[in-house]
Amino acid sequence: MKSRCAPLRGNCSATLALLCFAVFWGTQAAALSPIQNPSTVRASGRSRDATMDDYRSHLGQLITLVRACAKTRDLQDCDPLLVGPDDRIPLTSGAQTERRLVRYGWLRVLFSRAEEPDETAASTGKKSVGPTVAQPAPPSTSKLLLDAERRLASDLAQAGTSIGPEPSYPSERATMAQVLAGRDFRDLEQPSLRDTMLEKVNNWLNHLIQNVTKWRARSAWAGRVLVGGFILAVCVGLVWALLQLERRWRVRLAPEKRRPPASTAPSARNWQLWIEDARRAASAGLWREAVHFVYWACIARLEARRLWPADRARTPREYLALVPVADPRHAGLSALTRSFERIWYGGRPAVENDYRRAEEIAASLIEGGQA
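RE: above sequence
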């Protein structure tokens, strides 16, 4: 029984010795660190918040490491763990400090390759695309270490400049304000909702046309159908718009079926009789009554031409609303209506010039011209 347990105890003793040796080696490796302040050290590959002094000190230590690695090219001096964590350095000074992350992953990769000789690194990094294409040989590890030292030295030189508060550029701002206050920029405004919607519609149309072009390139008949449909829709829209404009601008002078006007309608009495009454009132110096008769003479004449259905209950403004704005007689009737309302309803005293002006407008309207 004792002979069977002796080998087992020997194996247990060997395993325990290996575990103790691994723990001791781990503690010794953890003690090797290029950062002097242990409280700020994090795991390799992570970042730390560092001041500019810490950043400059770290760069100096990295330059020393690169020199030692380039000299010995062994595992002890080219260990990637010696690079340490990345630095997050401040860009501005103040309450709200912005920071920039400076990474050293490129240096860790270079240290992992530094243990191999230059010929081996060059042969492993060289890949041929084809039998006839010659690829240039990559730079040697020694050359990369020299470039790394120069890069770190350049970063250290740039880190030596002091960081002050962000400049406000008062003179440049004053010049810009003076330029924007000029006549060329006086009418600048923020885009309105209408401009924004038109821009969106324009972008949508451009996107639609681009898609149509792609479809046309893939399938000729589909592109022709889409382009033809789009052109047909545009033509139909234009024809509909022109018809609407023609209906709005058309002067409705087509004679309707003859019907005797109502006895109270202005056209029930001949417009010439209204003109004779106006002239008799003017000869007697009754200018207010003369303007009144001239106005109803015009209404009777236009109503006799079937410009609107006969109706005595309309007001002067309702008669004016029945004439389209595009009608050449609208301006003259509007002026005559305003003069008649001011004199007859507004109580303004009328003079001879008011009657003469009303008679001129009435003559142009009765003859069918433009005042």
